[in-house]
Request: fold
Amino acid sequence: MEEVRTQAKAAVGLDILWKALTKELRFVVPKAIPNLVKDVEMIEGDGGLGSVLLFNFCSDASPMTYQREKIVELEESLHQIALEVIEGGHLNHGFSSYKTTFMLTAIGEQETLVDIKVSYQFDQKDDRNTKMPLKTTDSTLYFIRCLETYLQNADS
Reply:
């Protein structure tokens, strides 16, 4: 298993961002990145640990059309959540395992540090895969930026 890490600062309070990444994830994602995610369905569970979400992508996310993700870590006290792809998406594009972990830390009343860790394994080593982890953190940072913008606008 390989890992890549990055960080982002979001100009949103910890509680608001945590709620968006956990309890309201399936409602917030299509609003934050409507060009990429058409909708998110809860297909197992209640949004807690072990829940499975189905992300249906828009044509802008091509060639990916959908991705099922399972909440494999949920630590309220640490403000940490991890989602693992269990079908479709990244698993159809060279990865045999793919997990994204978010850990939030308040750095001010309206500012949160987001630590991001992507753990992955390739099906096979080939040239196509060498740039994927970089693209992965780029897309995760893009999501955090869009989520930040959406939450700031929803707040006002």
Strands lie at 2-10, 37-44, 52-57, 66-75, 80-88, 95-108, 111-122. The chain has three helices and seven strands. The two ends are 42 Å apart (CA to CA). The chain has a mean pLDDT of 90.
